[in-house]
Amino acid sequence: MTSETGTGTIRYRRSLGPQLQKVFAFLVVAAIATVFAIPFAWMISTSLKPNLRQVLAYPPQWIPDPPTFANYLRAWQAARFSRYMLNSLWISFAGVGLQMINGSLCAYVFSRIQFRGREFLFLLFLAVMMIPSQVTVIPNYIMLSRLDWLDSFKALIIPFSATAFGTFLLRTAFLSVPDDLVDAAVIDGASHLQIMRHVMIPLSKPTLLTFFVLNFNWRWNDYFWPLIMTSSDKMRTVALGLNIMRQTTEGGTNWHVVMAGTVLALLPVLALFLFFQRYFIEGISRSGLKGV
Amino acid sequence: MAEQGLSMAESKGVQNEVKELRQGVSGWRNPRRRTDLITAAVFLLPSLIVFGVFTYFALGFNVYLSLTDWNFVSPVKRFIGLENYMTIFRDRRFLASLKVTFHYAVGTVAGSMGLGLILALLLNQKIRGQNFFRTVIFSPYVTTTSAIALLWVWIFQPGTGLLHYMLSLIGIKGPRWLSDPKYAMWALIIMAIWRAAGYNMVIFLSGLMNISTEYYEAAKVDGAGTLSVLWHITLPLLSPTTFFLMVTSLIGGLQVFDAPAVMTQGGPAYATTVMNYEIYQRAFVYMHAGDASAVAMVLFVIVAILTVLQLTASRRWVFYQ
What is the C-alpha to C-alpha distance for residues B118 and B204, in angstroms, rounded to an integer? Predict the structure, then answer.
């Protein structure tokens, strides 16, 4: 991929030879990557330790003796942890599901139907991304309380059922669908919904996947909104709940249990990232370079 | 394709019809055009409602609240003009929170951009394990801040923590990180750099790939050395990416909340009470909806200025390729 671009093709005449240069680059990157991996390694190591003595040992003991998964069970059973996980899964899937529907519908309009004021509306969509959620949180709290939605799934899903970023992402994909294909569908008498289902969506699968992984990640990781909008233990998400668990007897100084809980909380987002890395990084860099 | 079976005249007619459809020249009385407009309205409506209510109406409502002395419970919202703004700009805690927030944002942006740039330059050549390293270094970025913050509390443990131990190996006596007002913010910045360096690396890498090889070939012909190429070609041509990252990361950094909320609760001695934590406390701990909204408006104005700066600059950037 990089063989023809970037600094890879320069011959470094005055300094090191190209081979030596690569060895140097390898060593530096490997060193930095090791430092970056240490926190993860420490988290996993701690989560597998059988007792507090090994957890608190100083100097630190890296290898659990013997490694045990018992902490994961303890974390799962502590302070409604399983409930937090299910809540997070539900609001992430439901939220992103609605976002995908609304995002595709809006992206279709913004890419395929002309009308006066369309550019202005699109600008309004884009501007949403620039308004920090903390700026609107107090009025939203008041509105949700008037609607009697506080401490319910509605409060965690509905305000996030539309997506400016997703609309922007999909619009770009829909615009790149060849006009001929759409025209052919129009001639065959396809309705807008049919064009979407049979032309746009199938041709935009990679973008939809990018859309899914990024938005899922953001919904899962959100801490601020559920902190304000939920109050009962049964409505907490895992981003909040982990911190609650730490304050219970099961947490406290029991860092092995807390770390097991942390691993569980991160599992879905890390797995999604590892499996769909390409889409993730593509989405991140595309949105980055487009300046949004 | 479909047109192949049609005669020239027919195909021309169909094309006109399609063109009409696409450009909408014939207005509301054309039934197809009407369907288009109705479809557009129906498709957009749910999103427009969501953004209209939860973003735009809320923003306006927030402006109004910032001009009142409301406390969430009182039945009347007394209009007091700009008094909240005057109060907060005389309030030392608010001014301190501004300073603390910028400290965090600038420290995080500088650190993660510097590290990200170095990594991108090193990874922008074929080296063994390239993809593996990229994955490892990027992965902290996808983690849940509030969860990973607990891991860092554990790493930052004074006296017995992993970081304390590792620093002691090179002869440094680690501070009491999160409980020392002098170091708490630096601890948050270290964690934030760990999270964001990979993101910066990825954006820099795609910026690097957009630089045409012609420049490098010309430099090669001129016999330019590595550092000279870096200084005279790579960095100038990368500057739109650099500027974009700087402003957007600054915007992100100014909105930090999760890490100080979990790791330090704004302490010790308000050393990590960033603006968002200030908003949270004023509104949801002390129930001062009025002045909390005013603080939120200040944050909004700062973010808006930075956004406009980024948009205008990216539109007329000097180093167009």
Answer: 9
Angle at B255 between CA B252 and CA B261, to 5 degrees: 125
For residues A112 and A176, give the distance between their C-alpha atoms in angstroms, rounded to a whole number: 11
- Shortest Cα distance from B162 to chain A (angstroms)? 7
Q: Is A10:B226 a contact under the CB 8 Å cutoff?
A: yes
Partner-chain contact A192 B39, CB within 8 Å: yes
Residues 6+ apart with CB under 8 A from B135: A274, A277
Cβ atoms of residues B125 and A22 within 8 Å = yes
- HSE, side-chain direction, 13 A CA sphere, residue B271: 18
* Beta-bridge partner residues of B79: B68
Report phi then psi at B68, rounded to 5.
Answer: -125, 170
Confidence of residue B6 (pLDDT cuts 50, 70, 90): very low
The answer to whether A250 touches A230, Cβ cutoff 8 Å, is no
Question: What would the pLDDT profile of B210-222 be if each residue is shown by its tens digit?
Answer: 888 888 888 888 8
Asked if this assembly's ipTM is beyond 0.90, the reply is no
Token reading at A94: 């439901």
Amino acid letter, residue B258 = D
pLDDT number for residue A251: 62
Give the bridge partners for B68, in sequence order.
Answer: B79
pLDDT band at B22 (very low <50, low <70, confident <90, very high): low
CB-based contact, B217 to chain A, within 8 Å: yes
CB-based contact B123:B201 (threshold 8 Å): yes
Q: Where are the domains of chain A?
A: 6-72, 74-289
Q: Does domain A74-289 have CATH number 1.10.3720.10?
A: yes
pLDDT band at residue B320 under the 50/70/90 scheme: very low
Q: Residue B79: what are its φ and ψ, rounded to 5°?
A: -80, 120
User: In the prediction, which pLDDT does A1 show?
Assistant: 39
- Phi, psi (rounded to 5 degrees) for B143: -75, 155
What's the pLDDT score for residue B77? Answer: 85
CA–CA distance, B306 with B296 (Å, rounded to integer): 16
User: CA B102 to CA B100: how far, in whole Å?
Assistant: 6
Cβ contacts (< 8 Å) between A105 and chain B: which residues?
43-44, 46-47
Q: Tell me which residues of chain A have a pLDDT lower than 50.
A: 1-13, 289-292
**Sequence-ordered alpha helix ranges (H) in B52-183:** 58-65, 83-90, 92-123, 130-138, 145-155, 162-169
Q: Alpha helix (H) ranges present in chain A? A: 18-47, 52-55, 70-77, 81-112, 118-128, 137-146, 153-157, 164-175, 179-187, 192-195, 201-203, 205-221, 224-229, 238-246, 255-275, 277-289
Give the pLDDT band (50/70/90) at residue B244.
confident
CA distance B245 to B19: 41
What integer pLDDT is reported at residue B5 of this predicted model? 43
Q: Which residues of A touch B151 (CB under 8 A)?
A: 39, 42-43, 259, 262
In order, the DSSP letters of B169-189 are: HTT-----GGG-TTTHHHHHH
Q: Which of residues 206-235 of A touch B (CB under 8 A)?
A: 217, 220-221, 223-224, 227-228
